[in-house]
Design goal:
Blueprint (H helix, E strand, L loop, with lengths): L11 H18 L4 H9 L1 E3 L6 E3 H27 L5 H26 L3 H4 L10 H11 L5 H25 L6 H24 L2 H21 L4 H10 L2 H27 L14 H27 L11 H11 L3 H11 L4 H40 L1
Antiparallel strand pairs: 1-2
Length: about 400
């Protein structure tokens, strides 16, 4: 099998690019160039003859990011039908661990920031895991780790993504408009039929028609009151496997090299408040603590319980130290957490900016912990392998 040499199809380089883009956004937001960049990001671009009138920042988070969710949905469908989650035996252990990785961060967040309704609404923010970033850190520091750790982390992160998608679709819908939503669902059905037709005939014109229907579907979802990225999820889930694989292969470099870094830059473009730590919003502290602590405790403890009750025919139990490594990697929320922070605190820009800073700090803390734990476990496995030889 030929291995692509394109670094944007790998795991390490896209993760590094994402981190650099976020750092650049945070840096420029706190320099004299802040105002002109902010003017560009807040400038509105409307599509004549439609209800679409979004700021540049929202075109990025609602439009460009839909491509990321399209690719994620294609991967979700593959893993659920032919991959690491295609049977109960494969799915039950990471599903239980993912449950802990969602519930415990929510509990930790609410203990810290749940006293006020204004900050309690941020409870979904620390539940996400950034697949690309977590796998990138694992690839950087995990040389020598058994493949089971990557498989477990991948399944865990995919289930986390499902939860995040549900949160976005259910919790952050507003002013629902039934007609555009119904028309969007009709467009999804047409897209599904076209993808089956493309799978059977391979005609290029059908692919163009799918692109047009996909854009129309996105526009209808955007004006329906449901977050526009859900359009990417729906289209990715219904697409026939062969066309879906080609779309994912074609979009992957652009998503990793352009879409996600641009979103990271825009999302991280926040001014660091001139406040003492005690003056920072509880939302900031809730996210900073819930991402690393909640994820490590939730994933490792629930994962350990899952290993104890696993059904016959399941994979061998993972050592608790490997579960700790997976939990630390799970605390790298980043992309989806940034989106959730924007959505949860959309009505309060000051708290939103502090929540975004919380995501960046919490994800960075998780990254450092994960790098240390993964490196130690990888070194242990390499030493074990050398001794056995």
């Amino acid at each position: 099998m030929r291995i692509s040499s394109n670094p944007l199809r790998g795991q390490q380089f896209p993760a590094l690019l994402l981190l650099l883009a976020a750092a650049l956004g945070l840096l420029l937001a706190n320099m004299p160039v802040h105002d002109p960049i902010a003017e560009v990001l807040h400038a509105h671009i409307a599509i004549p003859g439609t209800a679409l009138d979004l700021s540049v920042a929202h075109w990025v988070s609602d439009g460009l990011l839909a491509l990321f969710f399209l690719v994620v949905a294609i991967e979700l469908r593959h893993e659920l039908t032919h991959g690491e989650l295609d049977s109960f035996g494969k799915a039950v252990q990471p599903a239980i661990a993912a449950t802990g990785g969602v519930l415990v961060p929510i509990i930790v967040y609410l203990l810290v920031a749940g006293r006020s309704a204004d900050t309690a609404v941020g409870w979904p923010v620390p539940t996400a895991t950034d697949i690309a970033f977590a796998l990138g850190v694992l690839a950087m520091f995990g040389k020598g780790l058994p493949a089971a750790v990557r498989v477990f982390l991948l399944a865990l992160a995919i289930l986390d993504d499902i939860v995040g998608i549900v949160f976005i679709a259910v919790l952050f819908a507003h002013d629902l408009r039934v007609l555009p939503l119904v028309l969007a669902l009709v467009a999804v059905i047409v897209f599904w039929l076209l993808s089956r037709w493309l799978h059977a005939s391979g005609h290029a014109g059908i692919a163009v028609a799918m692109g047009v229907v996909g854009v129309v579907c996105w526009g209808l979802v955007a004006v329906s009151g449901v977050h526009a990225t859900i359009a990417g999820v729906l289209l990715g889930l219904v697409m026939s496997p062969v066309p879906a694989g080609r779309v994912r292969h074609g979009l992957e470099p652009a998503v990793n090299g352009l879409v996600l870094p641009i979103f990271a830059f825009v999302a991280a473009f926040v001014v660091i408040p001139s406040l003492s730590p005690s003056e920072l919003s509880p939302a900031f502290w809730g996210i900073v603590i819930a991402l690393p602590v909640g994820k490590i405790v939730g994933i490792s403890v629930f994962g350990w319980l899952a290993m104890r009750i696993r059904p016959r025919g399941s994979a061998p139990a993972m050592p608790f130290a490997d579960l700790l490594a997976a939990g630390a990697l799970g605390g790298i929320g980043f992309t989806v957490s940034l989106l959730l922070a924007n959505l949860a605190f959309a009505a309060d820009p000051l708290v939103r900016d502090e929540a975004i800073l919380g995501v960046l700090v919490g994800s960075l803390v998780s990254l450092v912990i994960a790098a240390a734990v993964v490196s130690l476990r990888a070194r242990w496995y390499r030493t074990l392998a050398a001794a056995s030889e």
